[in-house]
Fold this sequence. Notes:
Subcellular location (chain B): Cell membrane
Number of strands of chain B: 0
Keywords (chain B): Cell membrane, Membrane, Transmembrane, Transmembrane helix, Transport
Oligomer: heterodimer
Membrane topology (chain B): Multi-pass membrane protein
Distance between the termini of chain A: 31 Å
Structural class of chain B: mainly alpha
Family (chain B): Belongs to the binding-protein-dependent transport system permease family.
Protein name (chain B): ABC transporter permease subunit
Structural class of chain A: mainly alpha
Amino acid sequence: MINVKKSPGDKIIDAVLYLLMTVIILVTLYPFWTQVVISLDGSGAKSAAYSSGLVLFPKEISFGSYSLAFQYDALWSGYWNTIVRTVLGVILAVTFTSITAYPLAKKDLPYNRVFTGIILFTMLFGGGLIPTYLLIKELGMYNTVWALVVPGMISAFNVLIIRNFFRAIPEELEESARVDGAGYSRIFIQIVLPLSKPVLATIALWVGVGHWNAWFDSMIYISDPDNQVLQMVLRKIIIENNTTDLTVLMQNLSNQSDFSGRQLQSTIIMFSIIPMLLIYPFIQKYFVKGVMIGAVKG
Amino acid sequence: MNEIVFKRDRKKWKQYRVLFIMLIPGMIYYLIFHYIPMYGVVLAFKDYRLLEGIMASPWVGFQHFESLFSDPYFYSVLKNTIIISFYKLIFGFPIPILFALLLSEIMSTKFKKVVQTVSYLPHFISWVVFAGIFFTIFSLEGPINSIVQAFGGDAVLFLADDRYFRTILVITSIYQGFGWGSIIYFAAISNIDSQLYEAAIIDGAGRFKRMFYISIPMLLPVISIMLILSMSGVLDAGFDQIFNMYNTQVYSVADIIDTYVYRQGLVEMNYSTATAVGLFKSLVALILIIVVNSIVKLMGQKDHALW
């Protein structure tokens, strides 16, 4: 854009905009900050977890409630189950979504529109909760990790995104390989997939975050507490207010009775979001790229 | 003649064999995990018996729908669903657009990046976590209540009060989604030809004129597509959020179709009733999206339609 000399009015608007955006940043971060403050506050009964108000900083920093949470076994089994489902879910989703998308990227494939239509229709209509639930049970997936990773494996939306990306790969590349005698499978593995790393990585990230945050399927399909994912461990403590485990834990460590239930809740919230907060700034741009690719109509 | 067609087909089959084979796992997946549940909605017309399974359970016709439509609680749930999603749409839909327009006015790319990064963040955090965080924020001793008290008010149990619950739902859902929702508008704004703005500047158009006469009109196709998409979700008032944040005290204003289906189906084990409610919801969504899309097409805005 060309540079125009700014009028005083423009400068005021600029100042207001910067101020507004700064306020938006602060408001957006504040809820997270409250958890940091509460979880770190070591000032006992006077701590942020008890006292009223708009506490902006911990009065006294202590990692006591973190070391207490470290001894909470369900947290670690939750972590492990979440990691397992995330890794497995990402591998399955990326593999099968790209295998499905590749033939559909070929516009001259017979019945292409029929196959695409079969997939797209699932975006408009579905069986809903109960029929899906009964199906998963009847397939014997109940209480296994498969119930968490298979039902949502190939999302129609992701098929569309990867298909569109495959279509944008110059055809000459594939043609020259075909002249050299390569078949579709070889072209797919040796040419198309390596060239599609950006989109595959984006999808992997999307699916990965989805699995990391998922809880509902774990709630309805997993009955064994040892197989629950991290979000369900959290839910049990925060929402169902099932703090018996924690109370027992706190009683066992009677010398640390200064910690309130709420402080432990905040600490456990921090445990679940710290990995996300750490990697988020680095992966955020790939998510955005994916949304942009997905925005291309077709 | 048939011979020739057959031969041509066989040649095609041979040429595309590998591609068809690649489609097999995906098609099996869609058949099992999407189309079988679609068939499973026949449960809504059956009296489900656990031992007999879906197939063998006896047909009861529209009985479940009849009892549903004569149940006042169903209307209360339907009303809640529509009100909540309507509020979310009215207040939540324009905010990402406004945010994108305002932020794109900021010249410093670094500052812009920071604001964007922060604004997308809540989208990546689950509602379980947010429910926990908002319990603290809206609790009796929380920051909101201490502000209320500083102004001489009385502390309120916001999340257990049916006067405030919906407002909190709308505000927190905007908080969680506005940044992420704005990405698509940023993309559209960055695609606008900068010559348009330059010409406008030469013609003496100020910032607001440029926004009203260039940016907003250029965003209209994206806005209309996003609007169509959100229309289809009018009966999706946000299960994840509500299920994690609600409690029995606010059922009268917070119970929506999806939470009702969950409780009817998986808690009370009334599979058939729950399936009937779910089917009602899916059908309304399907009809809505088809209707809105044809309206857009009829208005001659073919490019703005979904298909």
